[in-house]
Amino acid sequence: MVGLAQRSTESANEHSTTSVVHVRDLTKTYSGWSFRGRKVVNALRGVSLDAFRGEVFGLLGPNGAGKTTLIKILLGVVRSSSGTASLFGKPAGSTDARMQVGYLPESLRVDRHHTARSALRYYGRMSRMSAAEITRRSDELLELVGLEGRDRESVRQFSKGMYQRLGLAQALMHDPDLLVLDEPTDGLDPVGRNEVRMVIDRLRESGKTIFLNSHILQEVELICSRVAIMAKGKICAVGRIDDLVRSESFSEVQFEVTQNNASQEELALALRHNFPELLLDEHLHWGPVMRFILPLSTQDQVNHAVDRIREAGLSLRGLTLKHASLEDTFMEAVRMSETQDGADGLVPEPEMSIAPITGSTASIEANT
Ligand SMILES: Nc1ncnc2c1ncn2[C@@H]1O[C@H](COP(=O)(O)OP(=O)(O)OP(=O)(O)O)[C@@H](O)[C@H]1O
After folding, report:
1. String of DSSP letters for 201-225
2. Looking at ligand 1, which residue's alpha carbon is closest to its atom 11?
3. Are residues 126 and 220 in the same domain?
4. Please, which pLDDT band fits residue 248 given cuts at 50, 70 and 90?
């Protein structure tokens, strides 16, 4: 298992160190009044992270962790309470920063009367692109997302995967260097997920930086080079997935033991005496060789269990270590955050007024 405290496992040599998304000590407090009085929600509590040029950075966290709030601040839709957030060195929300970011919301709505091409024309116009530029860019993007040849069909005919790939194309219309994707593969079948993943791969290869929010851990493992795990408004861990899911940590260990001349009942009795957690039958698989699984995570714990098996006069026939996964890392981080304080009230406050957005980020909604 991973260490319990917040830790950073950055390794500067393995990726570009040019910070595209730079966040320091960011806080966001929503406050307001209800019939019970004043309520405050600390949605972000001192968040710091960097996403570097050319990487796919994943933001993970359970519901209410603060992911959407962070993304809204990066896009300039919500104002932070304190701390700094910048994109390409420009304050998040400034016109300069917005011009360099494309956004795919979780549920992009493209009017049903559109074809893929007319939708891109619409978004291109919103980004104040010329007609020639729109045609050129649409051709490029339709090919990139694999919708060439389908561009005159009504989006009504589109599968979810095609719709999502069109969403990626709209986010890319003004050729931003940073793409912010909110749950890009949510609701897609395996084929659709694979198609979207392939587009993301091609974008990464072309040098774009991708910042994505997802709760599908297997997807994140496949797509992202680095991740931040958030819970209760804080970053619990940040770094390369391989580093976070440390190879020397386990999630569980399976033992196989036996004892000369002992019946299965005697063997079970000896095991239960030494490992009280095996009182439940579901944890113990009976047979001449008994099998059981313990939730051990460190080598020391494994050594200790082996010592106990030997002291009980049992012989160890087999030992299988299951290495920790990103899910184990995530669950541990979330468990830890739950043991900390932070009961928050939930009252919306009126958010800042939303300035006209240039570029394809115009599809962002003022979600209060
Ligand atoms: N406008 C708002 N007014 C008051 N509280 C809010 C507002 N927006 C979000 N919150 C609260 O802030 C906290 C963080 O919410 P946020 O939507 O950022 O989390 P999230 O990680 O994106 O969750 P989810 O995965 O469910 O979308 C939650 O407790 C949420 O209820």
Report:
1. HHHHHTT-EEEEE-S-HHHHHHH-S
2. 43
3. yes
4. low
71, pLDDT greater than 70: yes
- List, edge to edge, every strand of the sheet that includes 19-34: 37-52, 19-34, 82-87, 90-91
Query: Could you give the CA distance from residue 160 to residue 15 in angstroms, rounded to a whole number?
Result: 33
Cβ contact 196:188 at 8 Å: yes
Ligand 1 centroid vs 43 CA: distance in angstroms? 6
State the ipTM, two decimals: 0.98
Please tell me if the CB atom of residue 284 comes closer than 6 angstroms to any atom of ligand 1.
Answer: no
- Taking only the tens place, the pLDDT of each residue in 179-202 is 999 999 888 888 888 989 999 999
194 and 133 inside one domain: yes
In a domain, 172, yes or no: yes
Residue predicted with more confidence, 177 or 252: 177
Is 357's C-beta closer than 6 angstroms to any atom of ligand 1?
Answer: no
Among 217, 220, 236, smallest CA distance to 228 is for 236
Domain tally for the chain?
A: 2
**Predicted confidence (pLDDT) at residue 5 exceeds the cutoff of 60:** no
pLDDT in tens, 270-325: 888 888 877 766 678 888 899 998 888 788 889 999 999 998 889 999 999 887 78
Distance in Å, CA 64 to ligand 1 centroid = 5
Q: State whether 189 and 98 are in the same domain.
A: yes
Pair 139, 265 in one domain: no
CATH code, 55:
3.40.50.300
Residue of higher predicted confidence among 35 and 368: 35
49 within some domain: yes
Q: What range defines the domain where residue 303 resides? A: 247-323
Identify whether residues 278 and 131 lie together within a single domain: no
The alpha carbons of the chain give a radius of gyration, in whole angstroms, of: 25
Report which ligand 1 atom has the smallest distance to the Cα of 368. 1
Q: Tell me, what CATH number does 260's domain have?
A: 3.30.70.980
- Among 179, 210, 245, identify where a domain stops: 245
Say if residue 72's pLDDT is above 60: yes
Instruction: Indicate the helix (H) or strand (E) that contains 228.
Output: strand 226-231
